[in-house]
Structure prediction request, 114 residues.
Amino acid sequence: MDDCLFCKIISGDIKSDKIFENEFVLVFRDINPKAPVHLLVVPKKHIASIMEIEKLGHGEIAEIMGSISRIAKELGLDKDGFRVVTNTGQGAGQSVAHLHFHVLGKRTFHWPPG
Ligand code: DGP
Prediction:
């Protein structure tokens, strides 16, 4: 997608602080962190949100979910707990129309979220 910010990050046209990358997934630090650790986990294939998840293969979905738990463990987020969020649509505050999972850690989180 020519006009997609995260596609430009995936292609390298826009720089990011990359944490992990493979054929299917890119993980990088959020530019506007809401926690001491705030990562974005994105599929390399462009889909707008989780509402288009059927456009990804089972292997890609497994890779996204697997990378979340693997990186959470590597960074020690699992010890005290961490949060995974995918804002979907305007009402939920989605500002970039490329599926992404926020992974937030190293602080206390409250429920329900705002
Ligand atoms: P959301 O609002 O849920 O769609 O999340 C989009 C996130 O993307 C938001 O937390 C800020 C982050 N973001 C926006 N532009 C950039 C950028 O250029 N680089 C990085 N690393 N993150 C960005």
